[in-house]
Amino acid sequence: MITVRYVSDADKDFWYSLDQHLLEKEFDKKVRDRQGYVLFDDDIPKALLRYNLFWDNTPFCTMLFVEWSEQKRGYGRRLMEYWEKDMKEQGYGMIMTSTQVDEEAQHFYRKLGYKDCGGFTVDIPGYEQPMEMIMSKPL
After folding, report:
1. pLDDT tens for residues 87-122?
2. What are the start-end ranges of the H helices in the chain?
């Protein structure tokens, strides 16, 4: 049985097994502010999603990650749908996410109804990356 719930302190080890980018103080904020989710299948954690508020008023998914061995099983879709429903229930009218242009995730997001709405490049030494594509979706 698949379930999704807000991230809690008890999820810390699982969270950091997938998310190497989040500082510990930011993890604590995600727990406190309920800005992260964990998806479970038969009580075993499989995926996570975290977000923040772009412009301090628009939910922006900053990471969706499904364990490598568990991908292509619908977990990402289920987690995104859960987040979208939660954001709509909280009164938001639009959501956003992003992905690098060289990543396959853009196709996944388009299947969920997201549309390209811009992007940016970072060429600062030590932080270089391909163009980051911003995507949005009405709720």
Report:
1. 999 999 999 999 999 999 999 999 999 999 999 999
2. 12-18, 24-33, 75-89, 105-111
